[in-house]
Amino acid sequence: MLPEPSQAELRNTNDVAQTDLEPVFQGLNTWSKNGELADLLRSGLANSSGEISRAALEEGLTGFKGLTEGQRGAVVAALARLDVGFHRSGAVGMTLDPSAPNPSHPDEFQAKDTGDPDKNARGAAAREAIGKAMKKMGISSAGLFYHLNKGITGKTALQQEIQKRIESEGGLTDQEVQDRVDEELKNLMDHRGDWSRKNFAAAEVIHPETKEVLYVVDSSLPMSQPWGSGVHSEPHVMEWIKSVNEQRIANNQSPYDVISLYTEREPCGHASGNDCSRYIANDVEPGRDESKLAPGEKKNAIRVHYGLGFRRGELEDEAERIAAGEKNEVAEEKKQARENFKSDFNNYVNRVNKIWKGNAGSGALM
């Protein structure tokens, strides 16, 4: 399926590439087996400032340094989905500069006018409730709020696996076994995953003073009463970085430099309603003077990587086939293509979930 017009435009303004995820999953599986993944998740994967640094990942995960830029971003996005503590370390509103205004915080979010005053009021009331809950939880990321409200999926089977492992140690009474099982399940809540179909995005930035490479990672906010048509992960992350930089510039400080942006799904086009491709192409950075670009040079500096395709465009020969009387066949192929995109993402989430289950069941996250 061809890109939508704005997805094609993004390829003209930015370097855009699909990321090979197999080395990412190979790494996640290797780090699970050798204990490095669990060690780093237990430690929070943070530097001294509580942020996610590339140096910490390179030090803690063998082979991370050898991954491509997109694959590094994919690891960060997968780990944020896999572990709520990791998500917290790099979340919008909480990393880089928590004092900066967060445009996607319920108290700051500028909702679109629906044209229905009652509906607008219900949305505002819903955001107010979420904001109060976030304040009580001590968090500033709405993406993290939804993650923290997840439970442990497949809890019964996991409980049985943990119990069997503990019983195999021998020498424990039934009550002692049960107490150990309960303790593990309780502790696993600090490492719970988000297996929803929300999208995670990770931006790689350079600290202007230390030159340390850091990651900002967060999820999309759902299409719902408080968020209207939703907040996709790409603007969720990038608007936060923009706000941090605006505050730094106002304080006569140099801004963070954004190197790259990774997103689990390809940035969407107009058909999805949010058009993240057009947003990245036009609203994230001022861009270079197009009249002065060298041959092959792109207007924008930020490199964009994605894991899985997400398109609602036309087939390559759609117009000709419709003219030839194949309208129904074309419609069916487009429907199947959309189903394939959905299936690919479901399979991706399930693969990340399997890695989490392996670490949880083995007791590695304790």
As laid out across the biggest beta sheet, the strand order is 1-6-5-3-4-2
In terms of structural class, how would the helical and strand content be classed? Answer: alpha/beta
Q: What is the CA-CA span between the terminal residues? A: 45 Å
The largest sheet is: 6 strands, mixed
Q: What can you see in these coordinates?
A:
It is a single chain. This protein is an alpha/beta fold. It has 2 domains: 5-151 and 192-313 and 353-362, no CATH class; 155-191, no CATH class. The protein contains 14 helices and 6 strands. It has helices spanning 5-13, 22-33, 36-43, 54-60, 69-82, 84-90, 117-137, 142-148, 155-167, 174-188, 233-250, 276-282, 318-323, 327-362; strands at 16-18, 52-53, 200-206, 213-219, 257-265, 303-308. Strands 1-6-5-3-4-2 form a 6-stranded mixed beta sheet, sandwiched between helices. Helix 9 (155-167) runs parallel beside helix 14. The longest helix is centred in the last third of the chain and has 36 residues, at 327-362. The termini are far apart.
